[in-house]
Amino acid sequence: MNSEEVSKTRSNREKRKKLSEGFTGMLEEEYDRIRASGKTVKEVIWESGNA
Question: How far apart are CA 33 and CA 27, in angstroms?
């Protein structure tokens, strides 16, 4: 690999990491919201499917 390819690979890896961290944060917030409602995740999924 030349230095340009290495730089591009590193840049793509950093982008994927940022996306992953963002999605993880969103999931954690949603999970916290569900738990605060007093319901289980299963109950919320069931309700959303039957809405």
Answer: 10
How does pLDDT run across 3-42, given as a tens digit for each residue?
888 888 999 999 999 999 999 999 999 999 999 999 999 9
Q: Which contiguous run of DSSP H or E holds residue 51? A: none
Is 43:50 a contact under the CB 8 Å cutoff?
A: no
Spatial separation of the C-alpha atoms in residues 44 and 33, rounded to whole Å:
11
Can you say whether residue 38 is alpha, beta or left, with left for phi > 0 and alpha for psi between -120 and 50 degrees?
left
pTM for this predicted structure? 0.61
